[in-house]
Amino acid sequence: MRAVIVFVLSALLPLSLCHNWDPFAWLYGRQSQGYYYASLQADAAGGACPDECDCPPSFPVAMYCDGRGLKAMPTIPSRVKYLYLQNNAITAVPDSALVNATNLVWLMMHHNQLTSESIGRKAFLKLEALDRLYLQHNNLTSIPSNLPRTLRDLRINHNKIEKVTPADLEGMANLTILYLNDNAVTDMGSSLRALKSLTLLDISGNKLTKVPESLPDQLHQLYLEYNSIDALPESFLGHFTQLQYIRMAHNQLTDKGIPANTFNVTGLVELDLSFNKLERIPIVSTTLQHLYLQANQIKEFTLGSFCSVVDVTNFSRLQTLRLDGNEISQQDIPTESSLCLRQASTVEI
């Protein structure tokens, strides 16, 4: 019996080599006969893979064209859902470039040479399933027109955008992640009002002089560092229910510009106010875990900023406190601080 099996397999092997057919495909788990032939059919559906790209038969809905030195958009088969075009030298996305790619879910075009003028106004109009769009590290001066309302993750950082208008983000109620950092934005107006689902907003490294209006209620992370903000609005954090991380390092904040009890809100986990112009420690919630105040002009260690009452049951949950680079020393810390800051593992003065 064993001899018969060997004979049959030895007869099939030359045949398989001649016809690119693998007689052992049924042994490969996911490469079972049904999956194997379905993959080959899907690979041919919707057009051939361009020579300059890779379309793996095992993942036929993806097309890899990254790092190929491309200067123009390739032809995209209609079956493609995940398109990788990053790290090229593509200069334009004309209106016709994506008309066949209506099934796209991910479109990665970061690290190219795109300008706002070179992206057609209708280029993204028919991408009704697009979930992620990465356009960072290009030469854009504005947010492209007619972005799909299905987007949940938009990364347009490291460009040259100067202004964001309400029309740019209108109707994008599904957007949860927005990276706009490292641009040249001076004003955002009420452009964020429509982003009802936004949980992460990074607008650091811009030219903002004030906190943007109408910050979405569902924010979980807010990054505003490296701007020129010198004051915060009244009830800055009053309407947030999910916000845990705020970073406002490298701004122009002063004591006068921070209303009383601004940061005395439950829910905050991390607050970074380093490299500003503060002279006093602001009052923070006892639930805050990480506070960064280094490189300010703080002259006094006020224990009341952390604990309004100091006893066995009332104490701060701070784990990290950085006060180095200010005008106080270790001798300025009152002895009772060890009771208030009993959970702090890192205190740098």
From TrEMBL:
<dbReference type="InterPro" id="IPR000372">
    <property type="entry name" value="LRRNT"/>
</dbReference>
<comment type="similarity">
    <text>Belongs to the small leucine-rich proteoglycan (SLRP) family. SLRP class II subfamily.</text>
</comment>
<dbReference type="Pfam" id="PF13855">
    <property type="entry name" value="LRR_8"/>
</dbReference>
<keyword id="KW-0272">Extracellular matrix</keyword>
<keyword id="KW-0433">Leucine-rich repeat</keyword>
<keyword id="KW-0654">Proteoglycan</keyword>
<dbReference type="InterPro" id="IPR001611">
    <property type="entry name" value="Leu-rich_rpt"/>
</dbReference>
<feature type="signal peptide">
    <location>
        <begin position="1"/>
        <end position="18"/>
    </location>
</feature>
<dbReference type="InterPro" id="IPR050333">
    <property type="entry name" value="SLRP"/>
</dbReference>
<dbReference type="GO" id="GO:0005615">
    <property type="term" value="C:extracellular space"/>
</dbReference>
<dbReference type="InterPro" id="IPR032675">
    <property type="entry name" value="LRR_dom_sf"/>
</dbReference>
<dbReference type="InterPro" id="IPR003591">
    <property type="entry name" value="Leu-rich_rpt_typical-subtyp"/>
</dbReference>
<keyword id="KW-0325">Glycoprotein</keyword>
<comment type="function">
    <text>Affects the rate of fibrils formation. May have a primary role in collagen fibrillogenesis.</text>
</comment>
<protein>
    <recommendedName>
        <fullName>Fibromodulin</fullName>
    </recommendedName>
</protein>
<dbReference type="Pfam" id="PF01462">
    <property type="entry name" value="LRRNT"/>
</dbReference>
<keyword id="KW-0964">Secreted</keyword>
<keyword id="KW-0677">Repeat</keyword>
<comment type="subunit">
    <text>Binds to type I and type II collagen.</text>
</comment>
<feature type="domain" description="LRRNT">
    <location>
        <begin position="48"/>
        <end position="82"/>
    </location>
</feature>
<keyword id="KW-0732">Signal</keyword>
<keyword id="KW-1015">Disulfide bond</keyword>
